[in-house]
Write a structure and sequence with these properties.
The chain is mainly α and 98 residues long. Helices cover 66% and strands 0% of the residues. It is flat, with a radius of gyration of 17 Å.
Length: 98
Amino acid sequence: MDDPEGYTSGLQSDLRAEDAKIDSWLFGGVEQFSADPALSEALLAIAEVEDSRRALLLLGEILRAPGLADRLGEVLRPEADADRSGQQGREHPPPPAN
């Protein structure tokens, strides 16, 4: 099978190098936020997936979708939602439009 037009083996190497940088950054966060076990474990989980860049991009899309993060939180971590009841998260402005 031939490679698709525009494909180079260097592109895959570039993506691997980029993912390694992201993983390094995430592992640094694991250490930096060791006093917050839940955050530290979340950063470690992202760093340990095969494609951490893709995982972070997916997280970004989840957070942009109105209400999706809240609904997922209720299903995946109901005890965390109970702990936060009555607390408001920090509000961040939406990302600039592309």
